[in-house]
Structures are given as C-alpha cells and as structure tokens.
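Quick one: structure tokens for this chain, please?
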Amino acid sequence: MKRILVPTDFSEQAEYALKVAAQIAKNNNAELFILNLLDLPTHMNDAVNSGVNIPEVMLFLKKTNDKLDELRFESYLQDLNITTDTRIEKAFEGIVTYSKEHNVDLIVMGSHGASGFQEMLIGSNTEKIVRHSEVPVLVIKNEINDFKADNFVFASDFSNEIKKPFQKLVEFANVFDANLHLVMINTPNSFKSNNVAEKIMTDFIKDFSINKHSLHIYNDTNVEKGILNFANKIDADLIGMCTHGRTGFSHFFNGSISEDLVNHAVRPVVTFKI
C-alpha cells in the first residue's frame, strides 16, 4: 500500500478522510495524493476544453490551489510525501481516472451518505466511486484520531466469484495485522445450517494466507442488518465488503449491499470490486 488517493471538497467529511489517510500513509511509508475536482456547468467545461480562459474558472482554480497549498501545513500531514492536484472533471469520473493514471493502491473518501429519494435517484459521489473503482475504497464518516483495523468484519456468501477481490482484502487485513472476522449472514430467505455454513467458509479460506481470522454465522432478518448488528456486537473497527459495481436500473432493482452499507454504516467501510 504505497499510493493513497484522497479526493477532497474541503468539507468536514473530507478532512476526516484525509486524517485517516495520513495515519495509514505514515504507518506504511506511503505517498499521499490529494485531489480536488471542479465539476463545472457544461458550457464552462466546453469552453475550458476548447482552450478558452474564463475568469470565473481561473478564480476557482486559484482558490482551490491556494486551499491545497494551505493543507500541506496541517500538523497531521507533516513529514509525508504529498502530491496535490486540481482537475476540471466530474467528481466520480475524475477520481476513477486519476487513480488509474497514478497506480493508486487505495482511495480514502469522506462521506455523509445519502438517504431517501437522494439515494434512490442520484446516490452519493462516494457510492459511485465504490461502484466503479478497481482499487479498494475506504469510506470514512467520522473523525478517527487513531485509525485501526484490529477487529475487521468481512461478510460474504463465500462464493468462488469473490476469490480475486478477497485476496486484496486479505492483503489489506494483513497490512494492519487485523483479526479478520469472517461472517456469513443467515436470513429467512437464505438459511444454512451451521455445519453447511462452516464447511463453505472453511473450504473457501484454505487457499489464502490470513494472519489472524475467526469464523462466524449470524442470524438476522436481512443481510445488511445482520452485518451492522454483528459489527456492533464485536465493536468492529472496520467493515469489509465486495461489490458487484451494479449501475443504473440493475442497481435499482437488485440493490447492492456494499453500497447500502457505505450509505448507512457509521463505522468505516472498505469495499473491493468483484
């Protein structure tokens, strides 16, 4: 984990994410990229792309670069290798593109979530990043002075399709020397006996080298509630999920537990795309 990207809009939530990213960077001798995206109205964006200097845009860029320069002097960023950048691009598209260009290992984002019609119709930018990013996305909603992942919950059905992202999750957990709590959520619509569930989980993990782990079966009315309630029960530091990256109507009808957790969980959530 040598390159960490933190998108910022200079909000309180973005600062929470930056503080956590700084802690991770210091502990792993990682480079920190701080990115601001200016999502301009279409007519301004077209003009800029055509090489026209618009005074309002130039002012936005100057103010943004001034704010990024000021960030460098924050005490929690001292002694870190930092790159700052500003781009004129839609937030979620720009973040995904930037992470690929700079071979980023982890994206850390702040979020206040989205709910009700906002969540149904447009979702949050963070949710869109979770859906599209090829690298892990760590979502932070509150200030965490001492970020850790000692108790790291990973919930899954432990099917073969998640073996590739699970390898990334294991590497992430091992970096933090986390105790990985692997949990299968039993619901009325998808119930397995303890023996069956334990065999599925045991067979699944035998090919992975996990520093510390434990297996759990937890019963609840639905998967999302089960994950949140289990995380509360063990006082988890972090929740990990794999996401299918569904989009559009597919997301609307099928839903995505990972994206719903990003919106609804108070605890940090890290996602790995299938």
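Residues 114-123, 247-255 have pLDDT under 50 and may be disordered.
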